[in-house]
Amino acid sequence: AMLAYNEANARYHELMMKAARLGLDRFESKLGERSEPGRELTSMRALFDLYIDAAEEGYAEVAMSPEFRAAYGELVNAQMRVRQQVQQEIE
Fold first, then answer.
1. DSSP state of 22
2. Which of 54, 57, 60, 55 is nearest to 34 (CA)?
3. What does the DSSP 8-state code read for residue 38?
4. Which is it for the CA torsion 62, 67, 71, 76, positive or negative?
5. Could you tell me the pTM of the whole model?
6. Number of Cα atoms under 13 Å in the Cβ half of residue 85
7. In contact, 75 and 8? CB cutoff 8 Å
């Protein structure tokens, strides 16, 4: 059960890394759009907001995919199997 959990966790983390990469790619693209005169970022807050928007877009693209739903479901099921077996050992 622990092996299955570790494998499911690895697949989940691969998808989370994909979301992070997509977010950073979007952030870079959004920064490029802001390089035009009159569209520059004028504060750290504006830079932070732009980054958050890009990161959320990257996460949403991955999180709404069938691949993510399957990986997340597999992770939760594996966690519950481990929990159940630990509880049986305790009892």
1. H
2. 54
3. T
4. positive
5. 0.83
6. 10
7. yes
